[in-house]
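Query structure, 327 tokens:
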């Protein structure tokens, strides 16, 4: 695979070109990323390599700064790639706008789009419905429903009260917490991280919020899909261990790459590969994006970090261990 650097938008710009295989030219895909290249991007790229489909991937990363997005949207409008890949809820909302009210002056239009690592695309109005997106946009959901996650938590350890810590600036986190509120009522303790004078989340407030959860007497500390918390996942999960609180995460990184106790998750890599399959349907099979349903993986992974279980003296039931993946 050839990797060439371009200088259009600073060091975040890369062009990745797969070897040409009996095709006039590679399919041109622009990838818009929110927090850099990670496992879902690996899965997306590797799908084309496994299927021997030549692609040219032009990578653009806003690096969690949506002020960079307009220049990237303008570039897409000018270069007209065959497909656009968008990573993450906040970026997808900003780049695509509502499914029935996109503004061509600000949003991506006229190009098929697949999104990845997005929470509640219907509730966030990215698509009309999972079965019928309503525009040339499709993609993958990557977290289990809140109800399914709560049942998974109860299977590990029954609970009466759950605390949710989250960034109040992240739409995906707010969406999940709203669903938890509707499901749990007074059994939910909401703990938004503090915002500083610039209205940005303050990582120094995380240990204090965890302490509040402990004082509230909750049985679980729930971690929603949240980029800010992911950036500070070790602080969060270590603080929970220090306070003797079991954590349950919606995404794998808090368990796989931090000290979280458990989570019902979709593997980022697998979700990326599934998104690649949807892109293949558009690029190779000629299907219209609006005819391809938005779906989740059919198989989730129940992750358990055993060293955290030992520290908390909270081990999963034997029946759960038969199906869980220990890390």
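Result returned for the query:
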């Amino acid at each position: 695979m050839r990797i060439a650097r371009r200088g259009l938008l600073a060091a975040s710009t890369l062009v990745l070109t797969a070897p040409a295989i009996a095709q006039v030219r590679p399919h041109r895909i622009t990838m818009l990323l929110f927090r850099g290249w990670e496992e879902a991007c690996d899965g997306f790229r590797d799908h084309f390599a496994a299927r021997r489909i030549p692609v040219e991937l032009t990578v653009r990363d806003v690096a969690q700064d949506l002020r960079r997005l307009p220049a990237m949207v303008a570039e897409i409008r000018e270069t007209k790639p065959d497909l656009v890949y968008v990573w993450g809820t906040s970026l997808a909302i900003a780049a695509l706008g509502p499914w029935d009210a996109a503004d061509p002056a600000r949003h991506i239009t006229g190009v098929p789009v697949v999104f990845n690592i997005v929470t509640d695309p219907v509730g966030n109005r990215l698509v009309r419905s999972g079965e019928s997106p309503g525009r040339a946009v499709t993609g993958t959901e990557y977290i289990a429903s809140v109800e399914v996650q709560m049942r998974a938590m109860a299977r590990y350890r029954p609970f009466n009260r759950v605390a949710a810590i989250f960034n109040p600036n992240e739409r995906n986190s707010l969406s999940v917490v709203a669903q938890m509120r509707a499901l749990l009522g007074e059994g939910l303790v909401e703990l938004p991280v503090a915002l500083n004078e610039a209205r940005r989340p303050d990582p120094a407030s995380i240990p204090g919020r965890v302490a509040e959860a402990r004082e509230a007497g909750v049985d679980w500390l729930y971690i929603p899909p949240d980029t800010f918390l992911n950036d500070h996942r070790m602080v969060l999960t270590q603080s929970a261990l220090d306070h003797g609180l079991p954590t349950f995460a919606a995404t794998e990184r808090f368990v796989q790459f931090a000290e979280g106790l458990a989570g019902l998750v979709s593997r980022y890599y697998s979700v990326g590969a599934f998104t690649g399959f949807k892109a293949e349907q558009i690029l190779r099979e000629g299907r219209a994006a609006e005819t391809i349903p938005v779906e989740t993986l059919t198989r989730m992974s129940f992750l358990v970090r055993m060293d955290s279980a030992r520290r908390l003296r909270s081990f999963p039931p034997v029946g759960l261990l038969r199906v869980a993946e220990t890390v």
